[in-house]
Amino acid sequence: MNNFSYLQASKAKEATGAKRDDKSSAFIAGGTTLIDLMKLNVENHNQLIDVNMLPFKGIEQSNDGLRIGALERMSDVGEHKLVVDQYPAISQSLLLAASAQLRNMASIGGNILQRTRCPYFRDTAFPCNKREPGTGCPAKEGDNRNLAILGTSDACIATSYPGDLSVALIALDAVLTLENAKGKQRRVPITEFYRLPGKTPHIENTLEADELIVAVTVPKAEHARKSLYMKVRDRASYAYALTSAAVGLDVQGGTIRSARVALGGVGAQPWRSKEAEQMLVGKPANEATFRAAAAAAVRGAQPYEHNAFKIEMVQNTLVRALTEVAAKG
Questions:
Q1: Which of 2, 49, 41, 56 is nearest to 22 (CA)?
Q2: DSSP secondary-structure letter at 302?
Q3: Contacts of 101 (CB under 8 A, 6+ apart)
Q4: Strand ranges (DSSP E) for the chain?
Q5: Are the beta carbons of 77 and 106 closer than 8 angstroms?
Q6: pTM, rounded to two decimals
Q7: Which of 120, 142, 253, 313 has the most CB atoms within 10 Å of its CB?
Q8: Which phi-psi region, left, alpha or beta, contains residue 307 (left: φ > 0; alpha: ψ -120 to 50)?
Q9: Gap between the Cα atoms of 291 and 281, Å rounded
Q10: 320 to 97, 216, 291, 298, 313: CA distances (angstroms)
């Protein structure tokens, strides 16, 4: 790891004002991803800006819905009664992630910004368009078992966000509050926050260099209260999803009134499936409907040599998740 300077910011403007650009400087909270990437020389920063003293905490029900401060720890949010009772998919996505030790350290904002686990991105012996634009994407012909089948491009086939939380947040229409060096805030729907790789896979989201994630807001809704996050992985703990599904249903009299569907482990970003939702709304809550929605969710998928199994697996994951949440009424 290269030498770097360290600044512990006491005010938001001190932190954002010190951030020069994404390459030379980085914000650090829990550090559970950033330090790993620096040890691997994937990221090399001259300065780390500690944001843990900033007042971006709190878990509360506001007029806009559930508000979570970006510096809350994953474990605290996942175990919070309000989240467990009213937004179960968010709680489940957090408690199924990482290990207990990491959940106690990792912040909500940092989790939203975590970077891909593509082995070629994390090994500097290989070229990688996401790490060094224009060098190539060896994953297309190499080890692509854990990579994306939706939203990829010739430049990158990584599952750019490897985690769980943002899959649930995208399903439930979360909005991010961002703040820049001038103290100005803007609200960005999380569905508009992540960017598909296209020709610029190194640009992963719409966050500006001097912006911090301040908070996450999730609207209160019946489909949020009746939601679920399901994760399929190689082993029962501390493993990233091969496929996952975050779903929310409002079912009245056996008919689906509203539906939310997002998929993880299969997209070049956390994957909201409007196609699946359209197949669900107004239909009976039964297996035939769920199968039709699952088929719609993978329409246009582009598998590679080692990850074609994900097409069937993610459909089965989605059907199981929908079946389970519908059974809860």
A1: 49
A2: -
A3: none
A4: 5-8, 25-28, 47-50, 59-62, 65-69, 175-179, 185-189, 212-218, 227-232, 243-252, 255-264, 271-272
A5: no
A6: 0.98
A7: 120
A8: alpha
A9: 14
A10: 19, 28, 10, 16, 11
Nearest CA-CA partner of 37 in 115, 127, 107: 115
User: What is the rounded CA–CA span in Å between residue 250 and residue 286?
Assistant: 13
Q: Residue 213 carries which side chain, given as an amino acid letter?
A: I
Q: What angle do CA 54, 56, 62 make, to 5 degrees?
A: 155
Q: Are strands 271-272 and 243-252 parallel, antiparallel or unpaired?
A: unpaired
Q: Which two tokens stand for residue 308?
A: 């074609």
Please report, in tens digits, the pLDDT of each residue of the chain (329 residues total). Answer: 789 999 999 999 999 999 988 889 999 999 999 999 999 999 999 999 999 999 999 999 988 899 999 999 999 999 999 999 999 999 999 999 999 999 999 999 999 999 999 999 999 999 999 999 999 999 999 999 999 999 999 999 999 999 999 999 999 999 999 999 999 999 999 999 999 999 999 999 999 999 999 999 999 999 999 999 999 999 988 899 999 999 999 999 999 999 999 999 999 999 999 999 999 999 999 999 999 999 999 999 999 999 999 999 999 999 999 999 999 87
Residue 315 near residue 242 (C-beta atoms within 8 A): no
Cβ neighbors of 156 (< 8 A, separation 6 or more) are 129, 130, 137, 139, 197, 201, 268
Q: Which amino acid is at 145?
A: R
276-to-258, 273, 318 alpha-carbon distances in Å: 12, 5, 10
CA–CA distance from 26 to each of 7, 111, 203, 209, 307 (Å)? Answer: 10, 15, 15, 9, 33
Cβ partners under 8 Å of residue 73, min gap 6: 30, 103, 104, 105, 106, 107, 108
